[in-house]
Amino acid sequence: xxxxxxxxxxxxxxxxxxxxxxxxxxxxxxxxxxxxxxxxxxxxxxxxxxxxxxxxxxxxxxxxxxxxxxxxxxxxxxxxxxxxxxxxxxxxxxxxxxxxxxxxxxxxxxxxxxxxxxxxxxxxxxxxxxxxxxxxxxxxxxxxxxxxxxxxxxxxxxxxxxxxxxxxxxxxxxxxxxxxxxxxxxxxxxxxxxxxxxxxxxxxxxxxx
Length: 209
Fold this sequence. Notes:
It is a single chain. By secondary structure, this protein is an alpha+beta fold. Helix content is 17%, strand content 24%. The chain has one domain (39-208). Strands 5, 6, 7, 8, 10 and 11 form a six-stranded mixed sheet that branches. It is globular and about 45 Å long. The relative contact order is 0.16.
């Protein structure tokens, strides 16, 4: 590699001139550069289906090391990419199915669409995913009654620029959007309002009213 070769800056996402000892990352997708900039733990995966096990198809353990990720991008140019959600990357993903999740989402957010919809999001033909910052919160439990909505906080989730064998792709909507704090309606009610927690008599157990 010569001094004149271009690479993508990990800090700005813009093309820059690479030094002699740097790995050429001119082909590094801007979505991957954004993930590195956010501090997310990401990894290449072999799976090209939404329903495949990402744990089994991960090519390597997730990392945020720019040099390692640039090498993966060169060595596995056809791979998809996943992020380790939850504490590892300080990010969660709220996935909403377009057919079955709309009514559930309205119920969860109580028809309050202010601010949280401005967060960074990506989608395919079947679902939309909203990314929120994770700062150690405990999230509400979504039982089977909350159809079509999934909170990913501790699992692997596919990220753009992933693609599927059926022709679908994952792409960001508003790539420059900020990843904002998690909205209150996604948090455990006991953590949102401590007054709703009642001590059980003669016990250290606590129950949500």
